[in-house]
DNA sequence: ATTTAAATGCAATTATGTTGCTTTAGTTGT
DNA sequence: ACAACTAAAGCAACATAATTGCATTTAAAT
């Protein structure tokens, strides 16, 4: 997802600050999601922890980032598709969480439709597959 | 899921302690999953926090409980089906997390099969639907 | 340039989870 | 029933994650 942080801020009428630009830049570096702890490690010298939390929350609210929880309950962030808005995240793709390297991928796989029991009304469905990712599969073969 | 805590402990060759029995009793009270914070609130006077964590971890390892992470990264626990073992959790059903009352249900809906991209090998797939549960739907109608 | 409002940074607090070590209590064998 | 052994519980300390209130800074608007 190739984005221009400054434009993104404008589009969502968010004040342009160097902290906000840095966070977006950092997350946009990779298509793989990045965790809050990783972000804090990378940006902790430039940006206060609290500010980072606030920026991530705002980005999620605005539909700029989407948050994927891993099995340890750690928040991971990835750039949303441009179709996402504050009201509705178009995040109905499957995520893949590698149990080896713990990378989280946004797959180009739609979450399958499924029928809810009587009385249950699903608004969004979240699917995460756990297993070995392509990079880790390759590494195993090499050895 | 009607279970006898004492039997469960025997079956998994776990020492029978009053703390372990209490935790299982508490979780078995409801088919709906219960969160770690709720458990701590209910049992905190009888059982030390650390002990509770250790019991929950052991139960998960042994395949007695399964852990469902909600969207806030909070651990929720429910009794596993009897088919679950330490090696393999038969947890391939869909979970439903009510966005109103935040209850987590284990639905009798299988996680649909889906194809992973080249190179990705999924071992388990986790699906959680978010929306309004049956109880909350009813309450809305009443008003 | 001045004003205004919003965002940042900092300190303090709460929640969550883990580790090492001591004490307690089940279990096993006599 | 008792002793011996071992696993589990409890406690203190620590680590990390997340939130809140408030003072200060900075971007945007006039
Ligand atoms: Mn995604
Ligand atoms: Mn379940
Ligand atoms: Zn991997
Ligand atoms: Zn509900």
From TrEMBL, chains A, B:
SUPFAM superfamilies registered for this protein in UniProt: Winged helix' DNA-binding domain (SSF46785)
Bound cofactor: record note: Binds 1 zinc ion per subunit.
Cofactor(s) recorded in Swiss-Prot or TrEMBL: Zn(2+); Mn(2+); Fe(2+)
Entry keyword set: Iron, Metal-binding, Zinc
Residues involved in Zn(2+) binding: 98, 101, 133, 136
GO molecular function per UniProt: DNA-binding transcription factor activity; transcription cis-regulatory region binding; zinc ion binding
A UniProt-annotated Pfam family: FUR
Cell membrane recorded as keyword: no
PANTHER family attached to this UniProt entry: HYDROGEN PEROXIDE SENSITIVE REPRESSOR (PTHR33202:SF22), ZINC UPTAKE REGULATION PROTEIN (PTHR33202)
Protein known as: Fur family transcriptional regulator, ferric uptake regulator
Natural source organism: Pedobacter westerhofensis
Taxon lineage: Bacteria, Pseudomonadati, Bacteroidota, Sphingobacteriia, Sphingobacteriales
């Amino acid at each position: 997802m190739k984005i221009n942080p400054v434009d993104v801020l404008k589009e969502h009428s968010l004040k342009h600050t160097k902290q906000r630009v840095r966070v977006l830049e950092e997350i946009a570096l990779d298509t793989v999601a990045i965790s809050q702890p990783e972000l804090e490690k990378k940006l902790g010298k430039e940006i206060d922890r609290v500010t980072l939390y606030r920026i991530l929350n705002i980005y999620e609210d605005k539909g700029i980032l989407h948050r994927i929880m891993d099995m340890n309950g750690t928040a991971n962030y990835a750039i949303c598709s441009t179709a996402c808005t504050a009201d509705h995240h178009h995040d109905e793709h499957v995520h893949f969480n590698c149990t080896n390297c713990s990378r989280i991928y946004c797959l180009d796989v739609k979450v399958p439709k499924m029928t809810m029991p009587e009385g249950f009304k699903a608004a969004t469905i979240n699917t995460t597959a756990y297993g070995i990712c392509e990079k880790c599969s390759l590494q195993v073969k090499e050895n």
